Amino acid sequence: MDLGINGRKAMVCASSKGLGLACATALAREGAQVWINGRDAARLEAAQARIARETGASVMAVVGDLDTTEGRAALLAACPDPDILVNNNHGPRPGKLDMLEEADFLAALHANMLSPLALIKAVVGGMRARKFGRIVNITSAQVLMPAPEMGLSVSARAGLMAIAKVLQFDCVADNVTVNNLLPGPFDTDRLASLAQQQVAQKGITLEQAYARIGARGPSGRVGQPHEFGDACAFLCAAQAGYISGQCLTLDGGAYRGLF
């Protein structure tokens, strides 16, 4: 299927690795002009090379910390009029309520709610004027099935999803959609870190740790980043203009609710 985004400008945040990189790769493969972003210049350069190797496309790289005004400004200066915005950022540390301070919540809200909202606010007007826009927020399946130690992540990401839902009522008539992707366990560096923790705590092998994580869902495995990237690309497609305000969970069927 031709997704109809050849030549469209796509800004993909926190995309030097993991799910952000997978989304940038999928969009580049579909012919979009892609700007990737990260805090580590060397890692970002490696991501550029990987996308070029896998897709034949050249992408633009912008070094910057999305948690800062300067980092967001650098990304917007490089691509002031994107047709596609994929919001992504690092998640806060896990911890139960008695382990957390006010500063922890403020940092989580800034990274996972306020920073992506600042980018949305900066670009949505132009999208509406051009009558095309796709905004995809990468949040977490934890929002639907939170673990006790993931309160920081859940609270901040749920806030982003709530205001995204409100925003889309105004902009979808201008062919600007706003959706959320909620990943479960995917084979990324973050999951590798969690698996290593299980190895250290439970005295099991790395393969056993991955198997245990995958066994939590009925698919019996963890997701592969390219599966996530392709789902993101479809939500950015010209054909997806009637899909807005939705939360798509990618967790191998683990979510047990109907809605």
UniProtKB/TrEMBL annotation:
Keyword list, A-Z: Oxidoreductase
Protein's UniProt keywords contain Oxidoreductase: yes
Keyword Oxidoreductase set for record: yes
The enzyme's E.C. designation: 1.1.1.100
GO molecular function, one term: 3-oxoacyl-[acyl-carrier-protein] reductase (NADPH) activity
Pfam families noted in UniProt: adh_short_C2
PANTHER family, sorted: 3-OXOACYL-(ACYL-CARRIER-PROTEIN) REDUCTASE, NADPH-DEPENDENT REDUCTASE BACG
Family: Belongs to the short-chain dehydrogenases/reductases (SDR) family.
Protein name per its UniProtKB record: 3-oxoacyl-[acyl-carrier protein] reductase
Organism: Novosphingobium capsulatum
